[in-house]
Design a protein that fits this description.
Shape: globular
Largest sheet: 6 strands, antiparallel
CATH class: Mainly Beta
CATH superfamily: Galactose-binding domain-like
Helix content: 10-25%
Oligomer: single chain
Structural class: mainly beta
Distance between the termini: 31 Å
Number of domains: 1
Amino acid sequence: MHVLTYLALGLAAASAAGSAIAMDRTIYAQANGSGACQAALPNYEGQIRKRPLAIQNEGDASAFLTCSPVSLQGNAVHASGHELVLVNVTATARQVNCTGVSGPQSGATYMPKSVAVPGNGSASMNWTEADGVGAMNLETMNMSCNIPPGIGVRTVYTRQLVDVGQ
């Protein structure tokens, strides 16, 4: 056989073998809190400021925020989690309570979480499959948070394992 024939056969074999290999990759979808979150009711709007780096409670009382992160549909192998990164611009630690909600209205899974955000610091809150997030992430994931004064949502993450082929 000619050298070019061997080369052609080798490339064809490598191509055929490569197309059968599935490859999964973790994809991180990130959104700023001011893009993915909003005040839950109009009466909270006066306390909430959408800053470039966070959606922040600048009022004197707690306010509720609703966050709705983006997730990939179709080729997601599974969701590995959703995360809120919270910031505190006050000198004292503040407790933040949130409920993650996954699924349709008629059969939603409610996943409450709490975290202490240190003074002038940050903390994160995560929801994973172990908490009740749908393994295929075929349902929406939303968070409802009671945000004390001085607390903001800086970033909203969605992590998904996606089949990207080879």
